[in-house]
Design brief:
Helix content is 54%, strand content 11%. It is of the alpha+beta class. A four-stranded mixed β-sheet has the order 2-1-3-4. A two-stranded antiparallel ribbon has the order 5-6. β1 (2-7), α1 and β2 (34-39) form a beta-alpha-beta unit.
Length: 227
């Protein structure tokens, strides 16, 4: 089973959704699932060096006061806490995430995508770190088990930029307008950080369909092989 997850590291519900999916997989005892993170930028125009704080950006986006934006964010903090995530929204640096998505592509090629994605989410929402800073990205990748010199060389290049754009184009083709967005075996989709039960239901359905397909294939097999 393959689960493709379009998300952005600046999206608080993407991290929550990631944890809920992982919990559903664990509770369901699914062992044959591959989770692949796909690139999606909530704000491709976000500056490399932030000029406004998170609350100012939210206030401008939703036409509210900074104080109201803080109140809105507290609701997100409470939701995250229920899933074991301790968000520090006051420390968030709302920088451009394109380079972080490039790093995810690099990590994917070296079998460290999940570890790097986890590190990026933690850096953004819990440690108040700039995900457009090469030194921070290098540290995250190194802690995930990637070779420092290779990471530094990668970040100084434009490598994997095309892959990021291709995945963003794919999201548009699928009609994805917001994240997180989960696609299961290219058959079923879940939009948003839905409850664990919602993920469990889809996992169960896909597993049942796979069992039916295996039985059908077995029925088509005779002594000399399968038709």
């Amino acid at each position: 089973m393959k689960v493709e997850v379009w998300s952005d590291y600046a999206c608080p519900f993407c991290y929550i959704g990631k944890k809920r999916l992982e919990k559903a997989i664990e509770e369901n005892g699914v062992t044959n699932v591959e989770v692949e993170f796909k690139s999606f930028e909530l704000d491709p125009t976000a500056p490399a060096q932030p000029t406004m704080g998170l609350y100012e950006i939210l206030a401008s986006k939703y036409g509210t006061s900074v104080e109201q934006a803080q109140t809105m964010s507290q609701g997100v903090v409470d939701a995250a806490k229920a899933d074991g995530l301790m968000y520090e929204m006051d420390r968030v640096i709302p920088a451009n995430t394109f380079k972080a998505h490039r790093l995810t592509q690099f990590a994917k090629k070296h079998g460290k995508m999940d570890e790097v994605s986890e590190g990026l989410f933690q850096a953004y929402f819990m440690k108040g770190e700039n995900l457009n800073d090469d030194s921070i990205l290098t540290r995250i990748a190194t802690e995930a088990g990637l070779e420092t010199a290779s990471v530094e060389a990668f970040l100084s290049s434009d490598e994997s930029s095309d892959e990021v754009r291709q995945e963003e184009d794919m999201a548009r083709e699928l009609g994805v307008t917001g994240v997180p967005f989960f696609v299961f075996d290219r058959k079923y989709a879940i939009s948003g950080a839905q409850p664990v039960e919602a993920f469990s239901q889809v996992l169960d359905r896909v597993q049942q369909e796979q069992k039916v397909e295996i039985v059908a294939e077995g029925d088509a097999c005779g002594v000399d092989g399968c038709n």
